[in-house]
Amino acid sequence: MLFSIVGLSLIAVSICLILKKTNPEFSMLVSLVAGIVIFAIIIGSIYPIFDVINKWTSDFNLNNIYISTVMKSLGICYLTQLASETCKDSGYSAIAIKIELTGKITIILMALPMFLDLMQIIQRMVYLN
Question: Is 73 exposed, middle or buried (0-12, 13-18, 19+ CB in 10 A)?
């Protein structure tokens, strides 16, 4: 997997450098397509990680909601970074900043139920003392 990603990346960069002089819009398109293909390759190899996390969840009797929230947050981080870096590469850093902000707010909204649960646990501990 690593060698195919490195090879694809080098080929895409070479094509982008050639196209950047004559057709910059196609250069950006090649970059975007290469990023999506690389992301798809990586997604395909993540399943063993999910298997291990599911095993830990069942072995340690963890709440699936928390694990699910963390995994979704990681996915949001990666997608946000991919979109943001693509915008930055295209020269649209203002849009990239908005994408990053949207990702951060989305993660906060997703983590809100976990935060509320944590606050209830703290509140119970305070009342016990």
Answer: middle
